[in-house]
Amino acid sequence: MKPQPTVSSRSRSPSTRHRISGRAAACVAIAALAFAPALSAQAAGLKVYISADMEGIAGVVTGSQLGPSGFEFGRFRGFMTAEVNAAIEAARAMGATEILVSDSHGNGENLLVEELPGDIQLVRSWPRPLMMMEGIDATFDAVLLIGYHASTANPEGVRAHTFSSANLTAVRLNGVDMMEASMSAAIAGAFGVPVVMISGDDATVEEARMRIGDMEGAVTKWHYGFHSARTLMPEAARGVIGERVRAALGRLDDFRPLRIDGPLELEISFKNYMPAELMAYLPNVDRVDSHTIRFVGRDMTEISRFIEFTTSYAANVTP
Question: What is the CATH number of the domain that holds 92?
Answer without folding.
Answer: 3.40.50.10780
